[in-house]
Amino acid sequence: MATLQLFATAIDTLVSNEETDNEETDKKETDDVDSGVLYSRSPSNGLIEPKDCDTLHTLNHRLERDFKELPKLKRENKRLEAELRKSESMYEQERLTREMQETRLTELEQKLASANSKTRNCQENLEVLQRKLNQIELERERDQRQKDQLKQKCLNTKEELEKSKYENDNNRKEKERLQKNLAQYKAELKQKTEELQSDKAKLTTANKELNNQRSVSVKLRQEIDRYETLLDQRHLRPRDQVDSGDTQGEEVEQTETTDNYLN
């Protein structure tokens, strides 16, 4: 943007100087014609011709001077055109860069929205797992009480078995029944313990996934803030686009004025 403004200022200065020189030259030549000093009108064809040889020499000298200035003006015109093309290329590159940054910002916002959605889902899943864990804790406490009761029953059963070791067949059958019940209780206790360990592992995995999603959300938010700061520093807001368009229009008009003068 600063390069375009500097270039426009240089063109304005050059055109203003050339117009001032042209106006002074035209005024002098017009005054000379009006006073009849340099020219006189031919009686045969009515054209304005040089009045004498000195006047012709002066006109030739002026023509040679103008021809010498012409290459310089052409080179200056080419240089200004090259600078204009360079400035237009830089402006186009900045515009493409801004579009890429805006596209990237849109993608990051979409990723952030997706991450927030996943975070909410993980939070809901965590709440469900937490309720299940609370239920499992209650069941574990109940199982612990049952386990204590079973231990006490086992002790009582062991004592009863020792007392009834030498009793009749009915006592032996009762012993077998108690042993069967004990094995069944142990199997149930083992199954409950395995279920509790599995649910604890699921809860741990869900907590890790939730922490990962939160970390991703924070990183995405930081990257979006960095791109927004970068856009503000480059002054690539819609108001800057309008100003750039006006400056480019002024440069084209000034270039056309220079071409008309050379022609």
Tell the overall outline. Answer: rod-shaped
**What composes the largest sheet?**
2 strands, antiparallel
Total domain modules: 1
- Contiguous low-pLDDT stretches (5 residues minimum) are 29-39, 237-263
Average predicted confidence as pLDDT: 74
Overall strand count = 2
Secondary structure tally, helices: 4
Distance between the termini: 30 Å
Strand content: under 5%
Give, in order, the helices and strands: HEEHHH
Radius of gyration: 49 Å
Strand order of the largest sheet: 1-2
Question: Structural class of the secondary elements?
Answer: mainly alpha
Helix content: over 70%
Description:
The protein is an all-alpha fold and 263 residues long. The chain has one domain (2-262). It has helices at residues 2-35, 53-163, 169-233, 238-262, and strands spanning 39-41, 48-50. A two-stranded antiparallel sheet has the order 1-2. A hairpin with a 6-residue loop joins strand 1 (39-41) and strand 2. It is rod-shaped, with a radius of gyration of 49 Å.
Using brief descriptors, characterize the structure shown:
two-stranded antiparallel ribbon; 4 helices; single chain; mainly alpha; 263 residues
